[in-house]
Design brief:
Helices cover about 40% and strands about 5% of the residues. It is mainly alpha-helical. It has 3 domains: about 140 residues, Zinc/RING finger domain, C3HC4 (zinc finger) (Herpes Virus-1); about 55 residues, no CATH class; about 50 residues, no CATH class. The strands form 3 sheets. It has a 3-stranded antiparallel sheet with strand order 2-1-3.
């Protein structure tokens, strides 16, 4: 407090204040138009993203655009800080039936006036209202979709309508520095998916042969390289040789008579046929059931009928024992 505390409280403005702050002619060329990036666009190409990823500051990029930029310049396109591929966080945006981005919890459509946040640990994107009401206020630090634990520092702001000075296109580092990828490099990236992937020579050769006739033939033979195919062929030859050997022995030696069980005899007495016919019928029925089971075509089982049939067969078995 002092005598001069109200010395600048005047009821008028000076000419300088009028010219610089309140009025007067301004240089329109020095004033850049205000352009803000929509939340659904890549901060590097300014186009709608397809595979969104973000950084810790909330800048969203398309994965196919940011990877070659990092490889070439090694820095953040917006802030200019050092950026690595490990710093990118994959995002999961949810859409409604009309294809509009929305909050998966409150089902509110995202607009330019929506406060949008993402959880760093899971990558799911929500409106801030859902996080505030269901996580922050009740202090329930579990993700709303996956139930995974997270901290408040893991919240990344994708869009804040109250902070209009963020995501201004003219302030981006790659815009001010004039940094961009060549069209030839982008086209090569689209033509060759392995262009930006560090893979070994064998793996790269295998990926190139996936869509060729050689790759399709290898897939039909069970996959693998030539060594694996030779091993499978040798194992198949051994199995075939064993089968031929067993067939030759069985043709020379007479087959022993098949033993008949009490169940076969009971079935023969019930259905009025021989025990051999009963046994062959049982084997054929079993093979048919196995084939139907493998094909997935099975009739529903009547539990009562099976139970009564078992009781009937047990009575026949007791009668046969008494006869013996």
């Amino acid at each position: 407090m002092g005598k001069k505390q109200h010395s600048k409280d005047r009821m008028f403005i000076t000419a300088t204040e009028w010219a610089t702050e309140w009025g007067g002619a301004k240089n329109r060329e020095a004033i850049a138009p205000f352009q803000r990036l929509p939340f659904y666009c890549c901060a590097l190409t300014f186009l709608p993203f397809e595979d969104p990823v973000c950084t810790a500051d909330g800048s969203v990029f398309d994965l196919m655009s940011i990877i070659p930029y990092i490889k070439k310049f090694g820095k953040h396109p917006v802030t200019g800080a050092v950026l690595k591929q490990e710093d990118l966080i994959p995002l999961t945006f949810h859409k409604n039936t009309d294809g509009e981005f929305q909050c998966p919890v409150l089902n509110k459509v995202f607009t330019e006036f929506t406060h949008i946040v993402a959880v760093k640990t899971t990558g799911n994107v929500f409106c801030y209202e859902a996080i505030q009401e269901l996580n922050i206020k009740p202090k329930n630090w579990k993700e709303l979709l996956t139930d995974e634990p997270f901290a408040r520092k893991d919240l990344i702001t994708i869009q804040n309508p109250n902070a209009l000075d963020t995501k201004v296109l003219g302030q981006f580092d790659h815009v001010r520095q004039g940094l961009k990828l060549d069209d030839e490099e982008l086209q090569r990236m689209k033509d060759d998916p392995t262009y930006n992937i560090n893979v070994a020579g064998d793996l790269k050769q295998m990926m190139k042969e996936l869509g060729t006739e050689k790759g399709k033939l290898a897939f039909l033979h069970g996959g693998g390289g030539q060594k694996a195919q030779k091993e499978r062929a040798a194992a198949l030859a051994v199995l075939l040789a064993k089968e031929e050997k067993s067939d030759s022995k069985s043709s020379k030696e007479p087959k022993p008579p098949q033993p008949f069980s009490v169940v076969d005899a009971a079935s023969a007495s019930v259905h009025g046929r021989s025990a051999a016919a009963a046994k062959s019928g049982t084997a054929e029925k079993t093979a048919a059931r196995i084939a139907m089971h493998r094909a997935g075509d099975r009739d529903p089982i009547n539990a009562k009928l099976v139970y009564s049939h078992l009781i009937f067969m047990s009575y026949i078995y007791i009668d046969l024992l008494l006869l013996v």
